[in-house]
Design goal:
heterodimer; A: 442 residues; three-stranded antiparallel sheet; 13% strand; globular; B: 294 residues
Amino acid sequence: MRLLPLRSRIARRPVRAAIAITAALLTAAGLTGCGSDSGAGKTEITFWDNNGGPARTPIYQHLIAQFEQANPDIHVKYVGIPSASVQQKYDTAIAGGQPPDIGGVTTSYLSNLVGQDALEALDGRLAGSPLKDKLVTGLVNTVTATAADKKLYELPSSGNLDVIWYRKDLFDTAGLQAPKTWDEFFTAAGKLTDPAKKQYGYTLRGGAGSIFQLLAEMYAYSGQTGFFDASKSTVDTPKNAELVDRMSKLFKKATPAADVNNGYPQMVAEFTSGSVAMMHHNLGSSSDVKKAFGDKVAAVPLPSTDGSKSTVVANPVDGFAVFKASKHKDAAWKFAEFLVSKESNSYWNEKVGQIPANSDVESEAWIGQNAAVKDALALVRNPATTIVEAPVYLPQYSAITKADSEPLYQKVLLGQLSAADFVKQLGDKLTGAQAEWDKRHK
Amino acid sequence: MTALAAPPATAAAPAPPAGARRRRLSTRPPRTGLYVPLGLYLLFTLVPFYWMLMYALRPAGRSGVLPWPLTLEHFRTVWTGLGFGIFFRNSVLVGLVTLCFVTVLALMGGYALARFRFRGDRLFLVLLLCTQFMPGVTLLIPLFILFRQTHLINNLASLVIAESAFQLPLALVLMSSFVRNVPVELEEAAMVDGCSRLRAFFAVVLPQLRPGIVAVGSFAFIGSWNNFLFALMFISDQDRFTIPVGLSYTLGEYNVDFGALAAGGVVAAVPVVCVFAVIQRFLVQGLSAGAVKG
């Protein structure tokens, strides 16, 4: 192919090309005109909601309207972030030097933010606040346990609890009571299974997030009071192996065959489709299950071995963190205080069906009407209940409980690995991680 | 006057031997051999879409393969509750501007790559292709810092710039291939007739590049439409998020609204399906033309 000479006369009227390019540039310039407004005399703070969506965004918008009415010199700019990506969003913003003033956080990634020195410790602010002594001690302890220096980097607003959601109507038809012991649970799962009608007694979580649920079940079954015993993990015990074995024997006998890959969306979808009688999740899914079944669904805390004393693995605690890079820390703290005040905390937790962090809320009427939250609060407040803190402070905890152990649990379900070997491997990894932690922080 | 002779009677073509007739008939593909694989492939492609439509039109808590009773509640949730109208507008804006930038720049650069020889042209081509090995997430933080320093964080222009930068290399390579398929003699003929190079480009080359422009433009639009990472990371204003971010709102930390997710998916997919239905003729031409070296 012959090529034309490089030089040529420049066209005098490149009209069409110029019009097309100019139009695109003008449109792009129009995009840059989307600048943010800030009213004169007002302090604007940016609040990132770590679980933005149709369920929670309207709640925050209502609370923000109330806050701004009470504080006309502060404007809160709400940004909802999808929960699956919020950690990456925070990490990018921190690395890029532009985090929000205040953000919703949970203890599941709080240590990651603290490790980046992105958050302000709130102990001093809380000490001078009306919220001092109002917060549920267990939730505060869970928050401080995530930081190496045991400071409070998150103002807790809401707690959660593992529960068994169950279909009251199916239980009533079968003449069964809500399970209080593990034996009752396994019996109910078997009795409520009818493969011919595609009805199953239980849905397992064999995929993403399976190990956290399994740990909660193990400790509720074995009743152990701590995650480590002198730096050795207590996961590897005969009782825990027994629970894993009994759970795996439910697979395909009392559960759908697809459960081996279930994450929580698939699990919730199976339960809300009506084909499953029981599901282990937490109070956070109450809006979904209530929407699907109304009064036909109820929740009970995880069973215990004898039906009386409970051991509970602490769930991630929701709350609010003030970022060090904020230029309006006082306004951000004021907003956080407002969100955890009695009225706001009550409103929010009533809407989402979770445990309020402000103890003054426990006297509200809605607590008595929400049986799941009432039972959860009673369990958490019961002095006989042991709350076991998962070692989320360990840098390897996420990798151990997700990438390393989830495939192993699937092998147990498929009969390729024994329950005893599984708990041994999991326990050894946690012990190793704890040993490294102790060595670094001696 | 010479009488017009009647055309000689053509002898009737001899009938092909029976064996040839059988062979000719057997070269036509049997209907089952054609339609069964097509049908299976259609099922494979359309069943997920039907499933999404079913969830979008069915009330929560129902099971079965038919969306009955029908409800538009999920579409209402998504459009008004989630604010999909705003996300849709932002996605269309970013998509169209990216399409214009990428197409115009690819035309200019593709022509240069196809028609001119200059020092380093092969190296340039290789470098362009090498940029495709780099996932966008690795450049997230440097881009974030860059946009922050140029005050483009929280601005849709940052999405256009980032998307255009990532899509341009492949668009350039593709467009240069389309340009090579246009005979250079046509341009030379136009220039002999008095056209400048630019005029020859607009008069001769550009009309023949229509399938290529459609192919490159549609890829640019679809790539921009589907991009989630940049939209989430460079935008921190509820009113400036795009549809992929809006869809992810339905996946909460503890709950998933499958109906809203499906309805959002339908809203996100329908414009793209319509665009492809209109341009698919040009797309097939463009892709196959680009595949054949001149």
